[in-house]
């Protein structure tokens, strides 16, 4: 047995797995809601670290003592800043944060790829207000966690996360000096960028004690959760379309480096393993929209004095949507409740309603179909041609039969669920596999 501790620091949840890289089997897993939110687009780094401790300590102690490495997956795009003094840090500005001066920043040299919630935009905003001067270091929440795990103060960053800040020079495989300078970000505070799977350091004595994991085991640099989920879910990179549905959503296709330049101006390309990149579409709303619909119906039941419990209501809504998905008269439901990266002003829309299709089941089915259609439109048809399977991951697909059926109907392909219940954490552990 070769047990790796895999961690996933997500937007809503923190997960921990013990993954055997000899058998590709998950020996134990746990996930907890971290309650790190401090306001719109802001989260508490301290609460994230506490959630890591809680999640790991929920795993069997005897297996934790056998761990020989730690891999970390992290929510992408976000950034926090800190100093050498322990506890001196900014909030985590997440991928859901809003940058008031974004259009001004995007006009600066090398900054055209910036979007709301991207680390480069958040750092640029802090530089404009003068708040960036308070800090000497920065990184993603995963980079920050790795600093603590290894006892380092200076962050190292995996290319998968560096690209998520919108400042990456893909040819140089490092931050773009023109963009960094234009935004007023001191070079000295930026993390050093390394390939996926880079060794960040060794587990320090303090965190060995806190986690019950042997001191000195290797800790990898944090991997983007999109790439980690694809690594765990996709079995045939040439033929699979990866769909992930959690709080947000992603559609990803593995593209060889030699053809990647054909798509540079049409899709977002993200670093991946080997001689490949990921072509990615990332709607801002995924499973959160389904939760919003459930809360809508829950409030209606509550007003009538007969609200079912959350799990019962979830199952009712899922079953009602599944029954209606093949109906020819579904309304149209656009799920862009939070806008889209390319169109921040877009909003959700329910249309094409009639007296016959204005029902709970058909509206829920329309939303399920709308989520799948929104994912499909994110990538050019040429990239989806010739694929033969949907490799899906995330709680949205794991729990919702209707969302799985909607994806199959919209893409016209069979669907295979990831065998691991915490795929991003398992993907982080899989960075220890030889030959990646």
Main attributes of the structure:
single chain, 6-stranded mixed beta sheet, Nucleotidyltransferase, domain 5, 436 residues, alpha/beta, 7-stranded mixed beta sheet, 2 domains
Tell me what the structure shows:
This protein has 436 residues and is α/β, with parallel strands linked by helices. The chain folds into two domains: 233 residues, Nucleotidyltransferase, domain 5; 87 residues, no CATH class. Helix content is 34%, strand content 23%. It is built from 17 helices and 24 strands. The strands form seven sheets. Strands 1, 2, 3, 6, 14, 15 and 16 form a seven-stranded mixed β-sheet that branches. β1 and β2 form a beta hairpin. α9 crosses α17, α12 runs parallel beside α16 and α13 packs across α16. It is globular and about 65 Å long. The relative contact order is 0.13. The mean pLDDT is 92.
